[in-house]
Amino acid sequence: MGEIQALRGTRDILPDEVGYWQLVEARAREILDRSAYREIRTPIFEQTELFARGIGEATDVVGKEMYSFPDRKGRSITLRPENTAGVVRALIEQKLYASGGVQRLWYIGPMFRYERPQAGRQRQFHQLGLEAIGSADPRADAEAIAIATEILQSLGLVQLRLEINSVGNIEDRQGYRQALVEYLTPYKDELDPDSQDRLTRNPLRILDSKDKRTSEIAADAPSILDYLGPESQGHFEMVQQLLSSLNISYKLNPRLVRGLDYYTHTAFEIISDDLGAQATVCGGGRYDGLVAELSGPQTPAVGWAMGLERLIVLLQQLQTSPRMASLDFYLVSRGEKAQMQSLKLASYLRKAGFAVELDLSGSAFKKQFARADRSGAVACLILGEAEAENERVQLKWMASGEQSELSQADLLSDKLRDQIDAIKASGTTSSE
Description:
This protein is of the alpha+beta class. The chain has 15 helices and 16 strands. An 8-stranded mixed sheet has the order 1-5-6-11-10-9-7-8. It has a 5-stranded mixed sheet with strand order 13-12-14-15-16, sandwiched between helices. Strands 2-4-3 form a 3-stranded antiparallel sheet. Helix 5 (138-154) packs parallel to helix 9. The longest helix has 20 residues, at 15-34.
């Protein structure tokens, strides 16, 4: 049989790359915790009806991109293509709204869409998301955008731009939809095939087309901002004022509509020009009707999601190496008694709070020393038969090459801890 490989659109995240993911997750968790958001973890698969109702059957996500299958009882099940619908389902089912106030929730995990794989976009991809459920206040919109901005800036990403729009409420969109269809209909034969299909099902999505000719036609289409009612206009103006007060620069983009039907009022994207066609790093907006659409009480909400693969690409382009946890000791041993004792010593040191890698190769000292040189450890502990017999150990500082003998109990001395901490703080753990 041939070699089994990962499916197209999926990829392995190898140890050398995982540090970037841990960096993003740690920064995000810290900022979200400070902002009083609590983590929620929902199932990876849900009933298909949740996404059909929540996202909208006329969207490309539901119509073309979902991984759906019947389970053994014939129920239609879907791997989640996004997580806002799942979070709202959990809010309703578990009655999280019963306590009143705003539910500030965040999540992180894999999503699934059957799309053409490309840089920064896989069929299994990962999102970090935030949902503020229970407030219609424009401050919730501005706070959500500010938190996303802070997370990205904390990672050193500065070549980004924020684009915002308002898609109004249902009544606003009904009037705009009619005007948009009237404008686009004479150009129907010039639109790309997907946009021709959307003309009757979901005409607002035509504004988001990447087809060159369709984009040229859409550029002169009516602006949704001209169809906003007083309530929507007031909300959007306040969001802009709040962003300005936070010194968050933005650009109005009346063609920005997002790809999911549940959006109302504010829609936004944070974009990087360093990502090519897949330029959106973070996208979101307000969705005041989704909770009610999924049979919950009428509840306003706002949220966003970040694509982690795209963030990692940007971090790698910046050549920003994540700070990896460094080893305190690399432990080498040779001889039956020494090897038996080495495992006990490694466990003893780890319980005391040290980071220890135990060489398990059983090879000659020369080869073990070579691996110790590459490990990045502060010091190498050498345990031979003589040392094991007397419960002692040789300690070699990797940066200076200095070596001394001490008792194994002395490894826990405050003096030694202070030396290790000082060397790690200086960043000089290697002799190279």
